């Protein structure tokens, strides 16, 4: 089944500018936005699953190729490729203990408080 090409962001902005709030056109534009969000979520799921034994590889490859044509997914993938690498971590961990005696308090639970006899 062949579809028309996806609307570009500029075309969607033009449609939004020509229409009035509260019209059916605005409802359809929100529906387009909802489908774009769904495509992004589906792209995340497919990327996180990777090659999975329960997923038919043919279906997965068709889904990936169709997702590659969606403009919002293309933008998201391009943004991920252009991100700068993360710098050094800002939070520092506590120094590692070097003596065995320093490790014992980390793993031994504290002793329960002593019960006082009732008078």
Descriptive account of the structure:
The protein is mainly α. Helices cover 58% and strands 0% of the residues. The chain is built from five helices and no strands. Helix 2 crosses helix 3. The radius of gyration is 28 Å and the shape is elongated. The mean pLDDT is 75.
In short:
The protein is 58% helix and 0% strand.
> What is the N-to-C order of secondary-structure elements (H for helix, E for strand)?
HHHHH
What's the end-to-end separation, in Å?
Answer: 87 Å
Average pLDDT number: 75
Q: Count the E strands.
A: 0
Low-confidence stretches: none
Roughly what fraction of the amino acids lie in strands? under 5%
Range of helix content: 55-70%
Distinct helical segment count: 5
Q: Rg to the nearest angstrom?
A: 28 Å
Q: State the shape.
A: elongated
Structural class comes to mainly alpha
Q: Note the main sheet.
A: none
Keywords, please?
119 residues; single chain; elongated; mainly alpha; 5 helices
Question: What topology emerges from the helices and strands here?
Answer:
Elements: H1 9-18, H2 24-49, H3 57-69, H4 71-82, H5 100-107
């Amino acid at each position: 089944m062949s579809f028309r090409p996806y609307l570009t962001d500029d075309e969607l902005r033009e449609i939004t500018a020509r229409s009035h709030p509260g019209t059916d056109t605005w409802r359809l534009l929100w529906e387009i936005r909802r489908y774009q969000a769904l495509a992004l979520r589906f792209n995340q799921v497919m990327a996180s699953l990777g090659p999975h034994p329960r997923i038919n590889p043919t279906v997965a490859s068709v889904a990936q190729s169709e997702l590659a044509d969606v403009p919002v997914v293309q933008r998201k993938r391009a943004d991920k490729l252009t991100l700068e690498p993360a710098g050094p971590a800002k939070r520092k961990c506590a120094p590692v203990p070097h003596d065995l005696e320093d490790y014992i308090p980390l793993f031994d639970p504290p002793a329960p408080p002593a019960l006082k006899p009732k008078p």
